[in-house]
Write a structure and sequence with these properties.
single chain; six-stranded mixed sheet; alpha+beta; two-stranded antiparallel sheet; 2 helices
Length: about 150
C-alpha cells in the first residue's frame, strides 16, 4: 500500500508544473506486472500479479499527472504484440519486445492481448459484424415489402 501511495504522489505534479513523467511497465516471465514511475518528485514502483490470460496492468495515476513517456516491456519469448492499449510503437531489443509512446496523460491501464487469442477474437468479431449487417439488410428488404 505504501508503494501505491508513493506512486500516486510521484505522478501528481503541481498543477502548473506539467513536468514530464516516465512510466515503465514490465510484464515478467513469473506472471507479474511491475510498474516503475520516475517524475519530478522522485521514483516509485509496485508489482502486482496478472489475473487474466491477457497481459493487463493497472497504472494508478491522478488525472492531472501531465504528459507521460510510457514504455512496456514484454516477457522473454513473447511474440510481437498487436492491438495493445494504448497504441505503442514496438521494437525488439535483446530478444524482448519494447513498446513506447509519448502520451498527453498517463493511461489508467496497459493491455496487451495474447497474439494467438487476439487474432481469433478479431476474426470472430468480423464474422459477427458481417452477420449482423446481413441480417439487417434482409430485415430491411422484408419490411420494405407490404403483404
Amino acid at each position: 500500500m505504501a508503494a501505491l501511495a508513493a506512486l500516486l504522489v510521484l505522478l501528481s505534479a503541481a498543477p502548473g508544473a506539467r513536468a514530464q513523467t516516465s512510466v515503465r511497465v514490465e510484464f515478467t516471465a513469473a506472471g507479474e506486472c511491475a510498474v516503475t514511475a520516475v517524475g519530478p518528485t522522485g521514483r516509485a514502483g509496485m508489482k502486482s500479479p496478472l489475473r487474466t490470460s491477457e497481459l493487463k496492468c493497472l497504472i494508478p495515476v491522478p488525472r492531472d499527472a501531465g504528459a507521460v513517456d510510457l514504455e512496456v516491456l514484454m516477457p522473454p519469448g513473447a511474440s510481437r504484440p498487436a492491438g495493445a492499449f494504448p497504441r505503442l510503437a514496438w521494437t525488439e531489443r535483446d530478444g524482448r519486445w519494447l513498446g513506447a509512446a509519448r502520451l498527453p496523460a498517463a493511461p489508467a491501464f496497459v493491455r496487451v492481448p495474447d497474439p494467438d487469442r487476439g487474432a481469433l477474437r478479431e476474426r470472430v468479431l468480423d464474422v459477427l459484424v458481417l452477420a449482423g449487417a446481413l441480417l439487417g439488410a434482409v430485415w430491411s428488404v422484408r419490411k420494405g415489402r407490404a403483404p
